[in-house]
Amino acid sequence: MNKKYKYLDEINFPSDLKKIPETKLQKVADELREEMINAVSVTGGHLGASLGVVELSVALHYIFDTPHDKLIMKINNNLKKYGSKSKNLSETLEYILNRNK
User: Is the domain of 51 the same as that of 10?
Assistant: First the structure.
């Protein structure tokens, strides 16, 4: 990060997010989105799916005890890697979790 951020610069671990008042979480999301756009503008790549889940990601890390609580998120359209697009989420998760057994 080259730019200085009021909140994002203070977050090094998921637990640091919990030190920020809940009323400021939208600001955290705004800073995170801005940093993502800045990074991708330099490195290239896709960010559409990631931009769509910024608030969700901040909220999940704020509410849950990550990385101790395990989260599974699907934020792109790569379901075809795991099976038919017609599978529902529970079938897909079961396949992902059991594919190496």
Answer: yes
